[in-house]
């Protein structure tokens, strides 16, 4: 299985070893040849300073004791792969009890006349198995975020915002892209956007995507926010547009080195709007 980018490499020390040379690289041949970066440790563990997402790393341990006739014993080559992405919010941890309701984390327009957003189902029927979160129409896992919006009256926009209890570093491990998935509904209007630390990026895809009842991937180059993202404290999703209204669903917000490839099924759904389609 894939491992976290802050993995600690552990090994059993050789009986006569005084220290251990750790070779680690994405270049397998460099590790085999002993040309990879090497770190000498005295403990039987090593935590690399910096690994990137979605990479395969090769490593070996050469056991060393300068007092012996044979000073170095060559180790075998091992490998591991790091996770493809970081989860920002997959909406799986919310439930119907305080303080874990989705609207307790994603703050909407409740009590704010200028904000027309409602996050989560406002009055679920418990007897019918309903919840504050969406459980039938999801992209991944078992839950998604329902987002109702109504930019009428005093409401000039609709927005749900999450504040991170611990600021996040969105520059580490080769992160370049914020990815989220949204599901539209017929009749939706308005301009979809995302804010990071208050800096807004609007959806640059087809305007009718928010009206289509299927999941759509949106990949955002983090550089487009124009911020230093080493200290991310807030993430917001919203809809602009006077008089805009409708229902959207959001799921699987993550950080990636690049926009992930879509599955054949997702590509098939995207093709449904075309004049001529061929099933994959």
> What's the number of helices?
3
Helix residue percentage: under 10%
Strand content: 35-45%
**Total DSSP E strands:** 18
Supply Rg.
24 Å
Number of domains: 2
At the fold tier of CATH, the topology name of the largest domain is Jelly Rolls
Which CATH class of the largest domain? Mainly Beta
* Average pLDDT, all residues: 93
Biggest sheet, open or closed, and with what strands and sense? 6 strands, antiparallel
CATH homologous superfamily placement of the largest domain: Galactose-binding domain-like
Approximate shape = elongated
Residue stretches low in confidence (pLDDT < 50, at least 5 long) are 273-280
What does this molecule look like?
With 280 residues, the chain is mostly beta strands. The protein has two domains: 9-81, Immunoglobulin-like, CATH 2.60.40; 86-271, Jelly Rolls (Sandwich). Helix content is 6%, strand content 36%. The chain is built from three helices and 18 strands. The protein has helices spanning 28-33, 102-105, 264-271, and strands at residues 9-10, 19-25, 38-41, 45-46, 56-64, 72-73, 78-81, 86-89, 106-107, 117-119, 145-150, 157-168, 177-183, 191-196, 199-202, 215-221, 232-240, 245-256. The strands form four sheets. Strands 8, 10, 11, 13, 16 and 18 form a six-stranded antiparallel beta sheet that branches. Strands 2, 3, 5, 6 and 7 form a five-stranded antiparallel beta sheet that branches. A hairpin with a 2-residue loop joins strand 14 (191-196) and strand 15. The longest helix is centred in the last third of the chain and has 8 residues, at 264-271. Mean pLDDT is 93; it is low at 273-280. This is CBM11 domain-containing protein.
């Amino acid at each position: 299985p894939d491992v976290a980018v802050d993995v600690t490499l552990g090994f059993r020390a050789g009986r006569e070893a005084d220290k251990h040379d750790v070779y680690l690289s994405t270049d397998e041949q460099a590790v085999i040849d002993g040309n990879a970066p090497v770190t000498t440790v005295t403990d039987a563990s090593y935590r690399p300073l910096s690994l990137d997402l979605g990479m395969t790393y090769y490593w070996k341990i050469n056991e060393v004791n300068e007092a012996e006739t044979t000073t170095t014993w060559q180790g075998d080559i091992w490998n591991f792969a790091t996770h493809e992405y970081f989860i920002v919010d997959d909406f799986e941890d919310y439930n119907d009890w305080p303080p874990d309701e989705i609207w307790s984390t994603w703050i909407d327009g409740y009590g704010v006349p200028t904000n027309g957003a409602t996050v989560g189902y406002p009055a679920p029927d418990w007897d019918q198995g309903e919840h504050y979160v969406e459980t039938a129409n999801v992209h991944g896992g078992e839950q998604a975020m329902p987002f109702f919006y109504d930019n009428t009256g005093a409401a000039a926009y609709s927005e749900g915002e999450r504040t991170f209890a611990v600021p996040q570093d969105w520059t580490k491990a080769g992160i370049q892209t914020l990815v989220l998935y949204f599901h539209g509904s017929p009749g939706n209007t308005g301009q979809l956007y995302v804010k990071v630390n208050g800096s807004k990026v609007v959806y640059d895809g087809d305007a009718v995507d928010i009206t289509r009842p299927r999941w759509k991937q949106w990949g955002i180059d983090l550089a487009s926010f124009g911020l230093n993202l080493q200290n991310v404290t807030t993430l917001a999703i919203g809809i602009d547009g006077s008089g805009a209204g409708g229902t959207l669903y959001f799921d699987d917000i993550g950080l990636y080195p690049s926009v992930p490839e879509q599955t054949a099924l997702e590509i098939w759904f995207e093709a449904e709007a075309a004049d001529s389609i061929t099933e994959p």
